[in-house]
Amino acid sequence: MAIGFAGYHMPIQYDGIMAEHLWTRDNAGLFDVSHMGQLVFSGEGAAEALEALVPGDISALKPGRMRYSLLLADDGGILDDLMVTNTGHGLYMVVNGAVKWDDIAHLREHLPDEIEMNLLDEQALLALQGPKAAAALTALGVVPEFPDILPVDRLVFMQAGPYLWGDVPLGISRSGYTGEDGFEISVPASDVSALADALCAQEAVKPIGLGARDSLRLEAGLPLYGHDLDEGIDPVEGDLARWQDAGARGRQDFRREQRSRRRHLGRFCAERRRPDRDGLCAHRPVRARHGARRRSPRQARRRDGDADALRSTSLRAQTGRLIDAAFLYRRA
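^ thats the sequence. predicted structure below, dont judge the formating
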């Protein structure tokens, strides 16, 4: 089953969403995420220029390191969430497919003329996720491109580097697209089918569709842009301030603002089961968050409009209980 999304023909499921969800958690799932935008930035002062648009310390990134951040509008609304990597010879950014052209237009408008930005439209992007992902890449014969690059199975969380599969160049990062341990692989579009076939030929790897991508991310407490985040939500309301490393002064400002807000995005299970610190469901029937209450979508729309309605919902595959992402309101 497939749908059109962001100009691409994309599968929702192959063997069923729940089956694919569980497979990825226990083995390795392969996601084709080539609809996402891959951008590179170069020029003197590129990192500092980006810091004017995203609340992250891009200048502090060492070669081979990456950071999750947000592209913000002038009023602080979230235009997109993204990943930025220091490749050692420039900055590499991955943005969401549904808004990549809007992102590109915004970046071109606001970046200085001396900063060069290029869309890697000849590159595809795969995400290999799950506890057996590292073994699958190693078995495929993926090796570092240069002697000072770590073997792919020794990459740590939020680290990246250049690799080779035969003579095919790969840019590989380890950020966990689904909340599970996993790798993101930038590969020339002319070679992506062969790479995907070689990975899926392994017993531990199966192709996974968009449906399981959504349920896996929601279960892990990772927001989906367009569902849980949009331009009407800022980083504090989106419960993302902790990810934005804007220096000591900026972190203090984020925490101060977070304490003053009445609402923020929360993820929790039905039957008043709260999420643990990683966004997964705990097994004690307690309130969703201390001092907060959940309102129904109808109540939220009546008082505050659609921005405050239920954002995402999915079944947790292991238990069958619903997981919700919705705004939580502190009691006055």
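The first helix runs from residue 17 to 26.
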